[in-house]
Write a sequence for this structure.
């Protein structure tokens, strides 16, 4: 089973700043890596799929990069609604699909 | 628009079973596989398995083999997840989540979640 490790666990930033979130896989997942946003009391929402493709309706300030074992989600110019939890998912070698443990993006 | 509407919260005693439903709309039900994922504070997001609503074939995560059963009803566009022999550690929010196409493993839409509490 592929283990995904996200860092940092918590990221404290101010609106307007740039956020950089990391997801590292225990073995190569090629580009089969997705990112989700989750707000309290809500279901996750797909942001990025296949490492760098924005899902439908996702603002351009969200971008993804990486391949193999190291991936990054960047949010350029944080908006108040961006403060939430973020999870990565790999589907390279599944089942099982596996998730990272999440990064909490909080307002500084 | 795609909607996945799940059944309401449940409270169960240890050893009991729970069955959660997920009614799909806004797309052709049999065209997309459906995952079940649970979320706990301690374990985060945990994949439980997947069902092909067209035909009912399933694949379960190793941790849930023998305790989970996923079924589908094409007449009502509903999938079900039944978890048996509940323990306190099964207290979680359970989500159904649609696969994009052909069992790719990519989840694009999620239900609103169903809180299952296991307590004596």
């Amino acid at each position: 089973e592929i283990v995904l490790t996200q860092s940092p666990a918590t990221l404290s930033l101010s609106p307007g700043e740039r956020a950089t979130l990391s997801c590292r896989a225990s073995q190569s997942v090629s580009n089969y890596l997705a990112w989700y946003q989750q707000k309290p009391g809500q279901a996750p929402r797909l942001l990025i799929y296949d490492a760098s493709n924005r899902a439908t309706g996702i603002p351009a300030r969200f971008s993804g990069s990486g391949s193999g074992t190291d991936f990054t989600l960047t949010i350029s110019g944080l908006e108040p609604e961006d403060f939430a939890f973020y999870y990565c998912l790999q589907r390279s070698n599944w089942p099982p699909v596996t998730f990272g443990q999440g990064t909490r993006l909080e307002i500084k | 628009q795609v909607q996945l509407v799940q059944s309401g919260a449940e409270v169960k005693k240890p050893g009991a079973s729970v069955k959660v439903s997920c009614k799909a709309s806004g797309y052709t039900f049999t065209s997309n596989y459906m995952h079940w994922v649970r979320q706990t504070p301690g374990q985060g997001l945990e994949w439980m398995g997947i069902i092909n609503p067209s035909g009912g074939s399933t694949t379960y995560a190793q941790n849930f083999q023998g305790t989970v059963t996923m079924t589908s009803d094409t007449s009502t566009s509903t999938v079900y997840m039944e978890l048996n022999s509940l323990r306190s550690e099964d207290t979680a929010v359970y989500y159904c989540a649609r696969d994009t196409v052909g069992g790719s493993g990519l989840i694009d839409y999620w239900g609103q979640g169903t809180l299952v509490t296991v307590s004596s």
User: Anything to note?
Assistant: The two ends of chain A are 36 Å apart (CA to CA). The longest strand of chain A covers residues 19-25. The mean pLDDT of chain A is 96.
